[in-house]
Design goal:
alpha+beta, 2 domains, two-stranded antiparallel ribbon, 18 helices, 9% strand, elongated
Length: 369
């Protein structure tokens, strides 16, 4: 296996479009099919062929309970709905009096879709095929090559209606797609960890559920285990402290542009969503418009180098005002075993190293003006 494939997968997960859950559903579906060791998987030179119908089945299994849920679980940004929500909601409604999700799954896998629902189901399946092949398959990987269909290839197929519509119909009539063999190998070996079923956290939760005599749920354990000790109140207090300090300085300059600003945001240099770090060294004043452009992106080593004098100026101001807190926080986060005497040079270097690691190894998107 090529390490580049793993780096690319990380980049796809972190950088590719996040406007809908389609990307996650596509990756999850492919991984599940490979983990199932489906006998329909075939190999052709450097690519692996998989029936699109198997992916349609997976999407039905993922999105049916989400749309059926009494709790609103957003799957797309904005006010719009999923491309197939009308068709899937109709199917969900039709199955309410027939046994619900389990009855639908049994029909799809064994008995076949009832005759009076076949037409609607066929339209749903085609809508799912079009959504999958024209959206996530087309765009996944653009963060790597900037090309369409850079990883997934889809082979169209003329769909013929059959008298019985079930999973075999989906497999045989809805064409195939392919991925490079390297991605297949990566998903085969580490797919369950990427998907989460074999992740350390999930296994930990399962152990706790079993140890409780099944009195707890995996959902409950994960919800508690993922709680962060840093709250929004802590963030607001840190930002308030920073603003009070800067007010004493008079002029404030955007850390990323160097321009004088009167209204500004206190930006997490390394985004809080990436690194749950609310240290004072990680909080810097930024023009609101620039901060909105940066969002959850990681500053590149180049922009840190370019702006290091201003970063160090702000670090110096905070150090003078909150010396004990600043020293403890930067020692643990950036300096490590290095002496605090050289905190400026070591701090900037390690900050660049940390950002470079997040961009190059973890797949987060780099940012520079």
């Amino acid at each position: 296996m090529n390490n580049e494939v793993f780096f690319n997968i990380s980049k796809i997960i972190e950088r590719d479009s996040k406007s809908t859950t389609y990307k996650y559903a596509l990756l999850r579906g492919v991984i599940d099919i490979i983990q199932d060791n489906s006998p329909y998987i075939s190999f052709d030179k450097y690519r692996v062929q998989i029936p699109t119908g198997l992916l349609i089945e997976k999407w039905l299994m993922y999105y049916y309970p989400i749309l059926q849920s009494q709790t609103s679980i957003p799957q797309i940004n904005g006010e719009t709905n999923l491309a197939f929500s009308i068709q899937l909601n109709k199917l969900i409604s039709d199955y309410e009096a027939r046994g619900g999700f389990s009855a639908f799954y049994n029909d799809l896998k064994n008995k076949g879709i009832p005759e009076d629902l076949q037409s609607d189901f066929f339209e749903l399946a085609k809508k799912l095929r079009d959504t999958i092949t024209k959206m996530p398959m087309k765009y996944i990987g653009r963060s790597i090559t900037n090309d369409f269909y850079s990883i997934f290839n889809y082979e169209n197929h003329t769909i013929r209606r059959k008298s019985t519509i079930d999973i075999e119909t989906l497999i045989k009539e809805f064409g195939t797609f392919s991925i490079p063999y390297g991605y297949y190998e990566a998903f085969k070996i580490l797919g369950s960890f990427i998907n989460g079923q074999d992740s350390i956290l999930f296994k930990w939760a399962e152990f706790s559920v079993n140890a409780s005599g099944n009195n707890l749920s995996v959902h409950k354990v994960l919800n508690e285990a993922l709680k962060s000790p840093i709250t929004m109140r802590d963030i607001k207090e840190s930002k308030k402290l920073y603003k009070e300090i800067l007010q004493k300085e008079g002029n404030v300059y955007c850390v990323w542009t160097g321009r004088k600003i009167s209204n500004y945001d206190i930006d997490h240099l390394i985004p809080f969503s990436v690194w749950k770090n609310n240290d004072l060294w990680n909080l810097l004043p930024s023009d609101s418009r620039i901060n909105n452009q940066k969002r959850d992106k990681i500053p590149t080593p180049e922009i840190i180098e370019r702006q290091k004098n201003l970063i160090l100026d702000y670090w110096g101001i905070i150090f003078e005002s909150q010396s004990k807190r600043f020293q403890k926080e930067i020692q643990v986060a950036l300096l490590g075993n290095h002496s605090f005497d050289s905190w400026k040079n070591i701090g900037i270097t390690q900050l660049q190293n940390s950002c470079n690691y997040l961009i190059e190894n973890r797949g987060f998107e780099g940012w520079k003006i």
